């Protein structure tokens, strides 16, 4: 007899007899029989299409966040030498202290040395046991919301920012100063005397007395001045001419001491190395001579295919760098007749050459109008280091004697003077004032000032570099060691 359960409040339904268990259809396959909207609601756990799943808050997980990379990819201020750039740097250091535990307590420390460099994430242990540091113990009793290192960072004295005047402190007229990229007509001696070649004449200007003296006149010889260079040991001045001659003058007695006639065309570049004088010419040769030996005892260096327009000896006086209109940069030693290193990355004439006095073997070079790049080379390994596009013709380069900075002068089309930091290649200041290409550059003996010459027939003097540490020290009568030699 069947027994059926009845209830007055519900319909009577039959209870199916137990049967053997069957394989259940997967849930995702069951959803395939419904409409797309109902599938979305059921897959989200919602029983009704009109209801949506919600929660009270969202807490993101940051376990895998790489804060070091985020900081390194953050944009940098355009100029860190002003107050805004310094405040930005302080804020970055503060964030690194609080979020990364960098423990930076002095703004002088370069907390941005690792910027723009992606770091490998550190492996973190699940359990790390160590005794608490003194700073962690005292942090609980501190009323400041930041750590002790950050407090010291915020209370450190503010360093006075470097001020570079954008106006020249002196301007001299230079009539008939030639507007020729391949010439070198300005040089500054160790005795603080500036020389400039103006057409057929050579003039001397004393920075101490502002006295102007005409050293020589070549019009009677039918010649034109194409390069000038002071000796680094005495008052000898080398003068290159358009007829391929090199004249030596004693500036102190204003007398010519020697004439060398070893080139077939104009001499546009000169470089001294003690008593060794090198000259580069349009005839593509570099001539080395000792001024104390007979004129016929010379050494000719052949390598360039066009005019030689740049010559510079390394600070250790062991290597000579030469640049030419063939877009090549060569490095020679004192005994070789062929270059020991050849650099061919430039695509325009290489006149701007400068050896770093701070890093052994570091050489900088600049290209002409079609190149517009400043490139750096490791002459110890023969490898290129880095380069930067300047946007205009690079005419001259010179390193600071006291800091790891350099200055560049430019021609087409911006006619500007730029001061750079190395190795970051950040621009410190941009100086303008010349109306033509800034073709000539020389540095004062103390390394603080530079003089620039252009086709606008003016010489402009600028204060761009800091004093050396020895010059900054005050001479006090209480310092007993200042009078001891």
Essential attributes:
28 strands, 11% helix, 485 residues, four-stranded antiparallel beta sheet, elongated, disordered C terminus, disordered N terminus, mainly beta
Structure description:
The relative contact order is 0.08. It contains 7 helices and 28 strands. The longest helix has 18 residues. With about 475 residues, the protein is mainly beta. The N and C termini lie far apart (about 130 Å). The strands form 7 sheets. A 4-stranded antiparallel beta sheet has the order 1-28-27-26, with no helix packed on it. Strands 2-3-4-5 form a 4-stranded antiparallel beta sheet, with no helix packed on it.
How much beta, percentage-wise? 25-35%
Question: How many distinct helices?
Answer: 7
Structural class: mainly beta
Average pLDDT, to the nearest integer?
81
CA distance, first residue to last residue:
130 Å
Order of strands in the sheet with the most strands? Answer: 1-28-27-26
Radius of gyration: 37 Å
Helix content: 10-25%
Specify the biggest β-sheet: 4 strands, antiparallel
Shape: elongated
Count all strands and give the number: 28
Low-confidence stretches: 1-16, 109-122, 470-485
Provide a brief overview of the structure.
The protein has 485 residues and is mainly beta. 11% of the residues lie in helices and 32% in strands.
Helix/strand layout:
Blueprint: H1 27-31, H2 36-43, H3 67-72, H4 83-100, H5 134-139, H6 148-155, E1 170-173, E2 186-188, E3 193-198, E4 201-206, E5 212-217, E6 225-230, E7 236-241, E8 246-250, E9 255-260, E10 267-273, E11 276-281, E12 285-290, E13 298-302, E14 308-313, E15 319-324, E16 329-333, E17 341-343, E18 350-355, E19 362-367, E20 373-378, E21 383-389, E22 394-399, E23 405-410, E24 417-421, E25 427-431, E26 438-443, E27 449-454, E28 458-463, H7 469-472
Antiparallel strand pairs: 1-28, 2-3, 3-4, 4-5, 6-7, 7-8, 8-9, 10-11, 11-12, 12-13, 14-15, 15-16, 16-17, 18-19, 19-20, 20-21, 22-23, 23-24, 24-25, 26-27, 27-28
Helix pairs in contact: 4-6
